[in-house]
Amino acid sequence: MDGKQVWAELLEGNRRFVRGERRAYDFAARRTALLAGQKCRTTVLTCSDSRVVPEFIFDTNLGDLFDVETAGNVVDEIGLGTIEYGVEHLATPLLLLLGHTRCGAVTACCREGGHAHGHLQSIMDRLEPVAARTHRDIDAAIPENLRQTKREILERSEVVRKLVAEGRLEIVTALYRLETGAVEPVE
Ligand SMILES: [Zn+2]
Description:
By secondary structure, the chain is an alpha/beta fold. It has eight helices and five strands. Strands 2-1-3-4-5 form a five-stranded mixed sheet, sandwiched between helices. A hairpin with a 6-residue loop joins strand 4 (170-176) and strand 5. The protein is globular. The two termini are 23 Å apart. The model has no long low-confidence stretch (mean pLDDT 97).
């Protein structure tokens, strides 16, 4: 299965989630089957927000998604390393960058001028150029943050660049709407 097919399958799962028709997975059986190792097909970078749970949103099973979660779905060295583990070692053909509406991190950055206490500042530092570029318009900053994250991953990760160039990795940017449960691609 290539990245486009994996993405189509995830969107199918999201449609089930929106309709409230989630599959009844047998977690016990799957847990046992996965003892030999994980064979997931998607690496996903998303926000830590408790309302954004990729396994629920895409109606997937245990062992399907390799998740990287940070506030505001920004990446640092450890995030990049985790993404590289997913796309190279686990060879997932899809890297999904998933943002969401009403993101608290992006909202805080837009409203508070990129200032925060403690280690939260490191997240604001990532988001501030996006907030400034979109004139602190939250609805514009959220998709722009996804585009920025994609550019950053491609710029900084030779592993990701190589896999994309070889046609072995598809990167998709998408927005999750808290209001409806639907996921839509972001260009
Ligand atoms: Zn968020």
